[in-house]
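User: I'm new to structure prediction. If I give you an amino acid sequence, what do you actually give back? Let's try with this one:
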Amino acid sequence: MDDKIIEKYVWDSSDNACNACSQLDEKEFKTIGEIPDKPHPNCKCTLKEVEGELCDYCIDCLDKMEEMIGDSESLKFEVEIEISDIERIESEYTGIDSDDIQRILMDIGSLINPLGTLVNVIFDFYSNWSTMKEADTKGADKYYHAKANCEAAQSGILGSQIAEGLSNFREYTDNYRNIHEKKYTLEASLKDIEEDQEANREGRELGRKYPTQSCGDLVKHRRPDKLKEKHW
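Assistant: Good question. You get back a string of structure tokens that encode the predicted 3D arrangement of the chain. For your 232 residues, that looks like this:
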């Protein structure tokens, strides 16, 4: 695995740049999505990619996720056989909790289709992140942390594990931004991260316990009063 990551993008205005381009000169962007369109046709400005080192912890985390997906692929043909038996049990024994049945089916589904599970979890995280940015409501981050992890956990056991890995990776990068960009003290950064992780864990636990319920409702106690309903 490559041990380099793109840490940021830096706008580089050309010589004799127009006023609009000059205002963007040396401006930094963390992701490609943050980079604005070029102000005018035939713009000669460029973007510089600034590489950073990928920490050992992050490499281990991503490697572990790849290993989990690889292991689950090897189980594909074995667990496919179990699906018909579980569906038969569901139809014959009506006394079984429907959540238990749904949880088992989702677990098997996540193992049979690990790549699809990974894509779904990434979409859940991105969707909640986008909504959080759009809402721009103070104190809403813990709600979206919990909701994203809850939705991922409802994708099955593999979804829950992938969510845990992504959350750990996110908190490591957040610690760097807290200290080096937001100028938090180490103590304040660690407190913020622990609160995020508490929300992450709660979301996964609720998603596993209630696989068919709305995660927005399950973690509604974390919603700030000022958060508009359209962003729930």
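You can read the tokens as a compact description of the fold. Here is one thing that stands out. The mean pLDDT is 81.
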